[in-house]
Amino acid sequence: MPKTEKVLDYPFTPPTAVDPPAEWAELRAQCPVAHVRTSTGTDALLVTRYDAVRTMLSDPRCLRNTPAGDNMAGGGAAFMNDEAEHMRWRRLLSRSFTAKRMTAMEPGIARIAHELIDDMVDRGAPADLRSALGFPLPVFVICDLLGVPAKDRERFAHWSDRFLNLTRFTPEEVRRSGEELWAYMRDHVAAKREEPGDDLLSELVTVVDSADGRLSEEELIFTGQGLLIAGHETTANMIGKMAAMLLARRERWEQLLANLGLIGPAVEEVLRFDANLGFGTHRLITEDMEIDGTLITAGTQVLASMPSANRDERVFDDPDDMDLTRTPNPHLTFGAGSRSCLGQSLARVELQTTLRVLLERLPGLELAVPVEDLRRREGLLVGGLEEVPVRW
C-alpha cells in the first residue's frame, strides 16, 4: 500500500478548466503512489511521477483495463484486453498506418478546416470553436480514412460522443450506440471486401503477414470502430483545448503569428501542457512490482496520470510554464514504448494543420469569455471543454 492510508476522492477538482489541480504537485512531492476512490466507487492506486507513469504505460506487467472496453459490441472488450492479440493487431495495422501516409493527408485536412472555418465565419462571431471546427473535423478525417460516405459523418459523430462518455448518457444509450456502430462497421467491412477503394480499410482487408497472418473479420470491425473512437473524440477535444490554451495568454498567439515555424513544437507543448486529459490511463497489475518505493501487488487497479507526469519537475524545466520553443519534449500524452498511440502521427498532422489554418485565416482570433469561465466536459474518458467561445 502507499505510504499513507488516506483515501482521496478522484478525480480532483482543478481551479479552472485548463489548469492543473494542486493535488498533482503535492502527490508528486509527498505521496507519488496514492490510494484513491473514483466517482464510480472503485478503489485504485494513482501514480503521478513521470517514471512511474511511463512504466505503467509501457511495462507488459501492466495490462490496459479501460472502462470503454465494456461498451464494445462483438467481443471488442476481450480483444482490447488480450495483450498478445492486441500487439499482433498493432503489428498488422502499423504496415498501413504510417507517418508518411498520415502526412499525405494534410491537404485534405486543410481543405476540411477551410470549409468549416468558412461556415463559422459566415454565421458570425461569437462562435463555439469546439462545435464549429474541433468536433466535426476529426470525424470527417476519420471517415475519409475509412472510406465512409460523407452522408454518414453525422452518425459517426453521434456514436463517438456516446461511446466515450461515462455519465452524460444512460448505460442503455451507450450500449445501443456501441451495437449500432459495430453493426455499421460489420456491413462496411463486408462492402470493402466486395468492392475495395483507396482507403485504409480497403487496404487492411488484403493485409497478410507471414508471421501474423491477416486481420480477422472481428479485428477489421474493431479497427474501424477503434479508429473512430480514438481518432475522433481525443483530437476533437484537443483542437478546442489547444486554441483555449494558446489564446489564454495573448503573447502565445502573437508568438506563433510572428513565426509559423514554431507550429510543430507549439503543438508538442500544447500536448504536454494539457491538464485536462481525462481520468487517467487504467492499468491492471499482473505481477508484484515496486513503484516509487511502494510494493504494488498483482491484481491491483492503477491509474496513471499522464498530465501530472507531463509536469514532473524531475523531467521538465519550469514545467508550469508553456514554452512554445521547448525541445526536446518527451511528454507522455501519446503513451510510451511499444504500446504508444498508433494514431499519434495523424493526430499531430490534424493539430498542426488546423492550427496553421487558424493562424492564417483568423489572426485576430481571441477568446470571447475569460479563461476562468471555460467549463470542462464532465464524464469523458478523455478530457475536453464544453465550449470554446471565440471572436475575431
Automatic annotation (TrEMBL):
SUPFAM superfamilies: Cytochrome P450. This is Cytochrome P450. Pfam families: p450 (PF00067). Its cofactor is heme. Belongs to the cytochrome P450 family. CDD domains: Cyp158A-like (cd11031). InterPro entries: Cyt_P450, Cyt_P450_B, Cyt_P450_CS, Cyt_P450_sf. The keyword Magnesium does not apply. Keywords: Heme, Iron, Metal-binding, Monooxygenase, Oxidoreductase. Transmembrane segments: none annotated.
